[in-house]
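Consortium newsletter contribution from the modelling node. Members have asked for a concrete example of what our holo predictions look like. Here is one, prepared for the pyridoxal-5'-phosphate complex that several groups have been discussing at recent meetings.
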Amino acid sequence: MKNLKKGVDTICAHEGEIVDEQFGGSVSPIYVSTSYEYIDKEVRRYPRYFNTPNQESLCKKISALECSESAIVFGSGMAAISTTLLAFLSAGDHILLQKDIYGGTRNLVEAQFKRYNIDYSFTDGLELKDFEVGIKNITKVIYIETPSNPLLKIVDIQKIAAFAKSNNIITIIDNTFATPIIQKPILFGVDVVLHSATKYFGGHSDISAGAVATSKANIDIIWNLAKNLGGNLSDYSAWLLERSMKTLGVRVKTQQKSAKKLAKYLSESSSVKKVYYPGLKSHPNHLLAKKQMKGYGAMISFEFVDEINTELFLTSLKLIKPSMSLAGVESTMLSPAETSHHLLSEKDRLSQGITDRLIRFSVGIENKKDIIRDIENAINLSIK
Ligand SMILES: *Cc1c(COP(=O)(O)O)cnc(C)c1O
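And here is the predicted structure:
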């Protein structure tokens, strides 16, 4: 409870830190041992038991931010996602997933679940009714992601979680795009929150990690499989991630403030056909986003008018990096059709509204006027 009273930036800066009693240093020491004493010890520590001092320290910060009882960290977002899904699903169970989700998660389900005899389906849309018609009597898990990648669609977290609960179904959310600075799904009744910590948690495009925040009982279920599968985060990375997360609130708030202005700028540009950003009044779920988020995030997607050559635009950028990942302090852009969603068939991609002309824009911390100058310059160089 006491964490609810602390501000998010205080939690980011301090929660979970390991006090350096030996030397009085001001930051958490890093413990890289893979071997710990066990005689007369209550805890048997080992990196693949997910309980080294730096792993635990990081989990305390993450659970304080997500308002969960507990957390566990992994070596990648997909390690967190795959371990969690397989921990809750057994042969004969069904999982209902939201139509628009991260391409890697969709690929995991489509490429692997049949072999384990886990039944799956995707919703037709993102409204409550789409989930109501999608469940079966064997449905064990409902999986959502909001704002979604890459079109920033918004799902009503509270409605879906309440519906799932009344049917004894576990709700799992991928909260990577929002971060707990903007959105705390557990307060809306969600059971399990997932993160690719490679993104905003790390924030500097130099750490691969994943995280799960949920109840103690659920962490036990996940841990039981996690220790078999491996997929733990190294202590070097855990320490670096703790350091990075100290500025999570500061970064995300700066980035989303800039994103809101850039979305407006893009929506007013005669070269841009369509902008997807939940902070724009024209976004179909603007009011819902306003209700469940504190701000609208720092991801924008947009499509140029036909006169602009998208590929040429991307290669003409000088400040903004055309780059695979997202959420760093540096602004990046990419074509989802060529990257995050290239494993999907063209038909599936187009049915999700992901055209070859779509650009996903991860807004960094650079000054807005420099970002705009770069975009304008690249537009001028890519008129057909
Ligand atoms: C990147 C990403 C993932 C996968 O995380 P990795 O760290 O790359 O394994 C999952 N969900 C979302 C929304 C992502 O952006």
